[in-house]
Amino acid sequence: MKKFNIRKVLDGLTAASSSSSAAAASLQSGNRENDLIQETLQSEHFQLCKTVRHGFPYQPSSMAFDPVQKILAIGTQSGALRLFGRAGVECFCQHESGSAVIQLEFLVNEGALVSALADDSIHLWNLRQKLPAILHSLKFNRERITFCHLPFQSKWLYVGTERGNIHIVNVESFTLSGYVIMWNKAIELSSKTHPGPVVHISDNPMDEGKLLIGFECGIVVLWDLKSKKADYRYSYDEAIHSVAWHHEGKQFVCSHSDGTLTTWNIRAPAKPAQIITPHGKQPKDGKKPEPCKPILKVEYKTTRAGDPFMILCGGLSYDTVGRRPCLTVMHGKSTAVLEMDYPIVDFLTLCETPYPNDFQEPYAVVVLLEKDLVLIDLAQIGYPIFENPYPLSIHESPVTCCEYFADCPAEVIPALYSEGSRQKRQGFSKKEWPISGGNWGQGTLTILRIHAFFAVLYKLKTAKVFEKPRSKEEKSSTEIVDEDPFAIQILSWCPESRVLCVAGVSAHVIVYRFSKQEVTTEVVQLLEVRMQCELNEVESPECGGEQASAVSTPGTSSSPQTSLPQSHPSSSSNNSSDGLRDNVPCLKVRSSPLKQSPGYQVELLIQLVWVSGEPPQQITSLTVNSAYGLVAFGSGNGLAVVDYLQKTLLVNVSNAELYGSTDPHHRQPHSPRKTRQPSAGEQTTKRKLRLLTNNHNLYARDNSFSRSRSSSVASIDRESREVISSFYFCDWLSKKSETVAVPSLWVGTSLGSMLAIALTVPSTPEQRMQQPVGVSFCGPVVRLKGGILRMAQLDASGILLPHVYESWYEPNAPEEEREQPRRHRLTSPPSSQENPDCQYAVVCSEKQAKVVALPSQNCVYEHNITETSFVLRADVVTMTTGVAIACFCANGHIMTLSLPSLRPLLDVNYLPLTDMRIARTFCFSNQGQALYLTSPTEIQRITYSQETYDNLQEMLGELFTPVETPEAPNRGFFKGLFGGGAQSLDREDLFGEVAAGKASRSLAQHIPGPGGMEGMKGAASGVVGELARARIALDERGQKLGELEERTAAMMASADSFSKHAHDVR
């Protein structure tokens, strides 16, 4: 991946970060002592690359299975290729053209895969390496590819086209054979109409020299490859969708567009041996059944001990309106119709043998749906499904936000898994997941092994807290959002205490605590908050980025009024004096008792209410701290701090009150509201809350990315409404006279201000539950250009100070058994007279980053990140050898800056922002890890660490493992003596250049792939490896038989000699 110069400027939003003169971090005067901090992170410690993709393949289009290697491949409409083995073995590949994958064919047990694309190209993939690569490509120029067939243990690929012709490709060299089956030779010469595209190709299971060709119009031809003519032609009035052989090669079944199945004897082409309509109503008068929907695919599998299986999709009656898609399993006299949640894309029957000329013994069916992958157990009564080990259900409801924690406490994951395993549905098949190929990677780093494996541990449904709106009046209050009113907008999680806090689009915040005991909550603890702003538009001074003015200290007169509003009970008045909706939350809280299973349980529900006919502002920032027992959230109206232990509201102030007398903005009065009460329609359409990202600038810019990119950047500068954009709880030194850090809350706004609120938290657990938390406002600390995205704290040596937290304890345990909570706080080293500063505040905004010394509040380092774009996501991350700021910009650049000096270490143009989904879900984590939602159903993980990049090969799993191919079925003595067994064919004599000549050069173009010569040799030799191994095995058997005969003769000679000596002794 190419690295770009920081000074390089691209057009529009794709412009690179034009840091220009401010590209390097600048050291402010008077702070030269900070040169003593030794930074270990260098640019060579960073390298950006994709690692693993998880989730369900978006818009799947095709599927294939290797029955020996036990590997499943899925192709998509965007040209992606996903390969699945055992749990934890996954791989993602991408065709450069991006065309849809229409068909996949495994070279069984050879570690290779052929893909056919909608752009009429076929590709050979080498799966013997951890990162599969294309070895060969062949691009057809004059004909469209419609169907491909690769016989088992063959190196010749049959390619059917839209014109009705069949071409043959050598998969070793990926060159066309001169042998071509033309459509006009395959059908009757008397036929004047074109038979349509080729929809099926397969060879007779018992005779490789006979090829069955299905044309769309309803004609099927049995073609003799040696004589180059048609043996039989089978004609039916309805179009064909698929064909399936009986393993003995004497019958085949066709599925048709009218919902019928026709069974043909190969030697009786005049009429079908049987015609059935599986889902058609049979008229009593003997007439033809009513037509049904097309049967898109049928498979015919035999068993040695019982009736054969006939499995099909489609074919339902037209009068079944609204019925879900179905898979039909016909076994003997029983017919089972299995309903699916989504439309069926494809299905495959998994069988015990890879040989088509033996009893198939089917044991499972893989069903690829539009949004799911289902495996059905055919061996158990009722056809239960297998429990899916892959994390394919992350899109069960649309993903709205992501947070990534790469280094959780060791006990958290087992705790989540233990409780999450109880949530799993029952009734799964008792057998193991049959897609079991590949091996796990042997990562040398713990984080790498965790990184390679991805599983859903626990699911939490927040909508259970609320009543579902039923009447129109109830729905009107929830219609202030365009999306699901229960959708989650922001997450805040403390892994150490396991306290989880979520903010929803309906202006609500829910605090959860983790418990191993089941409880029944009679009444959900509710706190209603009334946020009202009298000042609206602000005019920001032009000194953005300058040092803030005088800072007010706790307890001074600059603190705003401390008379805090109380929570409003749900029984408050629904309308104000002028008839407008007032004091009403957006969602109605559940009134019946709530049974809460072990796991995350509701501790407190906080709801913002309507104010004088205005719906509550969307929540733009959220944080929770377990050491203080506090939750802070903000919006465009102000911020609120809630004590979730005492269930009280501590702070509810407007943005202007945060500044006190030091407000640098000139605010204009809120426009008076008209006394006329608007209609319900006007109320719901006037102000819509939109589900956007954690970045507050995306909240307020009305989907700027849907417009031109240049206008979206300009809209940033025009943004005038101040919004609370970020929070950070920490212990800090607010004054030079202080020697002990005190609890505080740092607040960042969309206009670049960082402010501080000092907290007085009672020291003992008993006092904490009885005494209120004290609050005093310290005013602004520093100002930056652009909205504040992230804040963090370093100690005097430049080491990141972890957040303060309280260890987890069982909240539902009896008082006498409950452990005393252990509060973890890190104290900064004492300051000296030469350097009174012993802490550093790291502040990153959309435009720049600053490092401020504390308690002097001097800006010691400053760096302009971008001028032409803006930062979407910023995180302070811990690497193996140091601390850095990681940024993702709207122009697609990923950057890292060292701390505390803010030196640029990485700048890569990685991912242009083309989708709001990326902005909503992109997040960084420690150890060089990051992820984002690359499609509505898939998570893409990336790394920006050189160490992870170097160990990537060890982290990834092996797709191909050496496995012996099962022995071919025994032909039997009489079949071998009188014939009747499977007839082999030397295709080289028919399709080779000597016999068939060269194909036309204009027909297709060969394109060598980037897989390398070694991979080409490995795959090419592997294609016919089984045949070679079979010949060697026969030679070895003959040699062993010869040796056995020699040993037998020697033993007989020895016996004769012994007998003679015995007679002589007598």
Automatic annotation (TrEMBL):
Pfam families, per database record: Lgl_C, LLGL, WD40
Gene3D superfamilies with a match to the protein in the record: 1.20.5.110, YVTN repeat-like/Quinoprotein amine dehydrogenase (2.130.10.10)
GO annotation, cellular component aspect: plasma membrane; SNARE complex
Name assigned to this protein: Syntaxin-binding protein 5-like
Family: Belongs to the WD repeat L(2)GL family.
GO process annotations (BP): exocytosis; Golgi to plasma membrane transport; protein transport
Family matches, as CDD domains: R-SNARE_STXBP5
Membrane topology annotation: Peripheral membrane protein
Principal localisation: membrane
GO MF, any single term: myosin II binding
Region (Disordered) location: 540-585, 660-684, 812-836
Lineage: Eukaryota, Metazoa, Chordata, Craniata, Vertebrata
Cellular compartments annotated: Cell membrane; Cytoplasm
Domain V-SNARE coiled-coil homology: 1012-1066
Bias-annotated ranges (Low complexity): 552-577
Organism: Cyprinus carpio (Common carp)
